[in-house]
């Protein structure tokens, strides 16, 4: 279909921002199926001044949203994956610390999930689980009625919470791996905790801003330095500083639970 081909660039851009560009052909095929189904069932009604391509783009928008939501919700469960709509190549952890041999069993997994829930908070955890168990596709590659809710506030918030919970899960896993490897050092525990964060960006923010406790002008001066190192904008670094701080606290809490009180920094 020519109209479907015309919106391929829109679909490509939408999937690339979400980090699922490799699934472009599958999504385009789903759009073709949905358009053909709509035309054959008489759902398309020509209107004066409204192009057929505009109707196709509306379908494409729904199919993309449904596909991204479902793919993000089921991307590498358990929750040891994080993703970003803005900077997928930066925020998807590629060098996560693996579980030490001998502890990646059911008990260890339950411990990770328990600590993740504790560190993420009940509100974020519940919202993330809501998205994980919901399904926005009818199984036939055609957006279902649930897809109409994807852009609703509850879904956008659930997507943010799911991303946060996944990042916390990676952080918790890395902190436990550090503890189990006996590499946690009382003298360097703050820096060790910063290394447990899930992405290079978050680790750089923690080490450069959070651990030293930079505020005001010093913090502002550090933003472009980190941005240049990670190849993002200073504004994005500023936006992610709060997230890095929360993840750092989670790592520190996990390590704290396994260390004597005197080993912790004041």
Mean pLDDT: 75
User: What is the number of beta strands?
Assistant: 0
Strand-residue fraction?
under 5%
Question: What structural category arises from helix and sheet content?
Answer: mainly alpha
**Oligomer classification:** single chain
Radius of gyration, whole Å? 22 Å
Distance between the termini: 65 Å
Largest sheet: none
**What's the helix count?**
12
Question: What does the model show?
Answer:
The protein has 266 residues and is mostly helical. Helices cover 64% and strands 0% of the residues. It contains twelve helices and no strands. It has helices at 2-6, 8-18, 24-40, 52-73, 88-91, 106-120, 122-133, 153-180, 189-194, 200-210, 216-230, 234-256. The radius of gyration is 22 Å and the shape is elongated.
What is the fold's blueprint, element by element?
Layout: H1 2-6, H2 8-18, H3 24-40, H4 52-73, H5 88-91, H6 106-120, H7 122-133, H8 153-180, H9 189-194, H10 200-210, H11 216-230, H12 234-256
Helix pairs in contact: 2-4, 3-4, 6-7, 6-8, 6-12, 7-8, 8-12, 10-11, 10-12, 11-12
Features:
single chain; 266 residues; mainly alpha; 12 helices
Short description:
By secondary structure, the chain is mainly α. The chain has helices at 2-6, 8-18, 24-40, 52-73, 88-91, 106-120, 122-133, 153-180, 189-194, 200-210, 216-230, 234-256.
């Amino acid at each position: 279909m020519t109209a479907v081909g015309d919106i391929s660039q829109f679909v490509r851009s939408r999937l690339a921002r979400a980090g699922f560009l490799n699934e472009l052909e599958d999504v385009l095929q789903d759009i073709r199926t949905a358009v053909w189904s709509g035309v054959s069932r008489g759902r398309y009604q020509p209107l004066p001044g409204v192009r057929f391509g505009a109707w196709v783009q509306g379908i494409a928008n729904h199919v993309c949203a449904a596909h991204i939501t479902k793919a993000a919700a089921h991307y590498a469960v358990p929750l040891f994956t994080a993703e970003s709509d803005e900077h997928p190549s930066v925020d998807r952890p590629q060098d996560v610390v693996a579980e030490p041999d001998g502890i990646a069993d059911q008990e260890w997994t339950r411990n990770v999930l328990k600590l993740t829930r504790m560190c993420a908070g009940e509100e974020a955890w519940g919202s993330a689980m809501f998205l994980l168990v919901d399904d926005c596709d009818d199984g036939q590659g055609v957006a279902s009625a649930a897809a109409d809710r994807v852009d609703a506030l509850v879904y956008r918030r659930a997507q943010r919470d799911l991303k946060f919970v996944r990042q916390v899960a990676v952080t918790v896993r890395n902190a436990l791996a550090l503890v189990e490897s006996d590499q946690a050092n009382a003298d360097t525990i703050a820096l060790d905790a910063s290394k447990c964060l899930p992405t290079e960006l978050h680790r750089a923010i923690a080490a450069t801003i959070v651990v030293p406790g930079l505020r005001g002008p010093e913090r502002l001066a550090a933003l472009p330095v980190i941005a240049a190192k990670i190849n993002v904008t200073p504004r994005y670094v500023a936006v992610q500083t709060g997230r890095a701080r929360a993840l750092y606290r989670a790592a520190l809490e996990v390590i704290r639970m396994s260390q004597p009180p005197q080993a912790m920094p004041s």
